[in-house]
Write a structure and sequence with these properties.
The protein has 557 residues and is α/β, with parallel strands linked by helices. The chain folds into three domains: 6-71 and 317-508, Glucose-6-phosphate isomerase like protein, domain 1 (Rossmann fold), CATH 3.40.50.10490; 96-297, Rossmann fold; 517-555. The protein is built from 23 helices and 13 strands. The strands form three sheets. The chain has a six-stranded mixed beta sheet with strand order 1-2-13-12-10-11, sandwiched between helices. The chain has a five-stranded parallel beta sheet with strand order 6-5-7-8-9, sandwiched between helices. Strands 3-4 form a two-stranded antiparallel ribbon. Strand 8 (250-254), helix 11 and strand 9 (270-272) form a beta-alpha-beta unit. Helix 7 crosses helix 12 (289-316), helix 12 (289-316) crosses helix 19 and helix 13 (323-337) crosses helix 19. The structure holds 6-O-phosphono-beta-D-fructofuranose. 6-O-phosphono-beta-D-fructofuranose is lined by residues 153-156, 206-208, 211, 214, 279-280, 365, 515, 518. 6-O-phosphono-beta-D-fructofuranose binds at residues 153-156, 206-208, 211, 214, 279-280, 365, 515, 518. The active site is at 365 (proton donor), 396, 522. Its EC number is 5.3.1.9.
């Protein structure tokens, strides 16, 4: 795949010229064009996306579409959908879209029909989920499973954890999932200390099955299980008893099935996926097994249908109304031409409290790159810092800086028309959801339209406070709404951001599907093992700062 330096493209140069001294007065823009909100609002599956409060003019909009065409965004996305090896540094296809392709379609990659394989694994996951949910899967003492503990990290944790939290209303009553990720022993200890080993099932999720955190926690879980069962007199201390217990309380999710077997997990209890699924793109693969158990076969099928709806929208909708394309291009506009450094995602849904963390891995591990596909250094910013918290909590914490600080921070607001819990205030009779949504509607309007000094004065504000109480406005945001937070809508939201990430990476000419930047720290942590254990020779080889920190550790441990 050809690598282009986007700064050499005519549209990039034009956008640079257009951005010089660029200022858009959003009040005037809306006044001048009464159809602005309508013309810049788009539908993508169940999502209603209002781009009108972004800092764009018709000319910028057109130029961004030209940039997309010149950078070959569509060529890259088609190559992805067709299974070409667009992850060039690992020489792999990038086919998370095949995970949600309908049964009966066919996609041959490296000589295999990957969609048939996907549906075979899905069938096994659904059978497993059914058996846990209906109680036919029982633990070693014949008790039904009440708690599923997913052990994984990064993509093998953030996706299922975020989705489980988001879809709590759809979780089968009486069944709980917990998520252990950190190698900090606190995590596994806190998540298991009140559990009954007889009714607990572990899912060890690791694409590579070599990740230190996951394997360490899996071993801790195995020891906890066997100790607990032995203490209760459920099993004796023989290897055969341990093997039997593990086969009833451990399943695995991985691309490395031989390593799963070596760990002692019965290969019949392992759900595979493929090296063409990146960790951060894997929640809709077997990595979502805990979620499938929680929300059931139908819920998971709906979840996949949501992804599929956005894939189809992205693939088939013309550029000028293609939502992921437009949102990705807007991010490029803000990052590279208006020099925003960060991007906030503010869901007005407590259920989406892990969504910003999920997006951090998706976007920052994908697009935090400093060289293009061909290894040449970029001369422009790539992946922005994604961050956020649910509204309205964030309003009482960091929104101050977004409203009145000095930085440009594009914001994505997300909200749902229908509440899961429809409470009414007993004194005022007002629906709590409407008080909540009032904040969602108000925040994007306040950011866009602000409050002028004259408006502040007209409220009788003393002159010395006018500057403090003025809101400059013209702060950009996108508002995403959907009827309700369902499995399908969650799938749509995730796929939306997957495609936005692809668009940005395509414009920047980088490989959005490798993650070499995580390797150095991992290797160094392992190499420091002997020094931490007190090996004097290893300690002497550490750098001066690390030695100093280790001395503090030795003095205080
Ligand atoms: O360290 C980064 C990473 O490789 C992520 O890309 C991945 O999601 C995570 O670690 C976990 O990897 P695995 O699923 O192989 O345990």
């Amino acid at each position: 795949m050809e690598t282009k330096d986007p700064t050499t493209l005519a549209a990039w140069k034009d956008l640079t010229t257009m951005a010089a001294g660029f200022h858009l007065d959003l009040r005037k823009a809306f006044a001048a064009d009464p159809a602005r909100a309508e013309n810049l609002s788009f539908a993508a599956a169940d999502l209603h996306v209002d781009l009108s409060k972004n800092l764009i003019t018709g000319a910028v909009f057109e130029k961004l579409l030209e940039l997309s065409a010149q950078a070959g965004v569509r060529d890259l996305s088609e190559a992805m959908f067709n299974g070409e090896h667009i992850n060039n540094t690992e020489n792999r296809a990038v086919l998370h879209t095949a995970l949600r392709a309908p049964a009966g379609t066919q996609l041959m990659v490296d000589g295999k029909d990957v969609i048939a394989e996907v549906h075979e694994v899905l069938r096994r996951i659904y059978d497993f989920a059914d058996s846990v949910r209906d109680g036919s899967w029982v633990g070693v003492s014949s008790k039904r499973i009440q708690t599923v503990v997913n052990i994984g990290i990064g993509g093998s944790d953030l996706g299922p954890y975020m989705a489980y939290e988001a879809l709590r209303p759809f979780v089968k009553p009486g069944l709980e999932c917990r998520f252990v990720s950190n190698i900090d022993p606190t995590d596994i200890s806190e998540k298991t200390r009140d559990l009954d080993p007889e009714t607990t099932l572990f899912i060890i999720a690791s694409k590579t099955f070599t990740t230190l955190e996951t394997i360490t926690n899996a071993k801790a879980a195995r020891a906890w299980l066997l100790r607990g069962l032995q203490e209760r007199g459920v099993i004796d201390e023989t290897d055969a008893a341990a093997k039997d217990a593990i086969s009833k309380h451990f399943v695995a999710v991985s691309t490395a099935l031989e390593k799963v077997a070596a760990f002692g997990i019965d290969p019949r209890n392992a759900f595979g996926f493929w090296n063409w699924v990146g960790g951060r793109y894997s929640v809709d693969s077997a990595v979502g097994t805990s979620l499938a158990v929680a929300i059931g076969r139908e819920g998971f099928e709906e979840f996949l249908a949501g992804f599929r709806a956005i894939d189809e929208h992205f693939r088939n909708t013309p550029p000028a109304s293609n939502v992921p394309l437009l949102m990705g291009l807007l991010n490029v506009w803000y990052s590279n031409f208006l020099h925003a450094q960060t991007h906030a995602v503010l869901p007005y849904s407590q259920y989406l409290h892990r969504f910003p963390a999920y997006l951090q891995q998706l976007t920052m591990e994908s697009n935090g790159k400093r060289v293009r596909r061909d290894g040449t250094l970029v001369s422009y910013d790539t992946g922005e810092v994604f961050w956020g918290e649910p509204g309205t909590n964030g309003q009482h914490a960091f929104y101050q800086l977004i409203h009145q600080g000095t930085r440009l921070i594009p914001v994505d607001f997300i909200a749902f028309a229908r509440p899961t819990w429809d409470l009414t205030d007993s004194e005022t009779g007002k629906r709590q959801h409407e008080l909540f949504l009032g904040n969602f509607f108000a925040q994007s309007a306040a950011l866009a339209f602000g409050k002028t000094p004259d408006e502040v004065r007209a409220e009788g504000t003393p002159e010395e406070l006018v500057a403090h109480r003025t809101f400059p406005g013209d702060r950009p945001s996108t508002s995403i709404m959907a009827p309700a937070l369902t499995p399908k809508v969650l799938g749509e939201l995730i796929a939306l951001y997957e495609m936005i990430t692809l668009v940005q990476g395509a414009v920047w000419g980088i490989d959005s599907f490798d993650q070499w930047g995580v390797e150095l720290g991992k290797a160094m942590a392992i190499n420091l093992g002997p020094a931490i254990s007190g090996d004097a020779e290893a300690l002497a080889q550490a750098d001066a700062s690390t030695r100093e920190l280790l001395e503090y550790y030795f003095a205080h441990k």
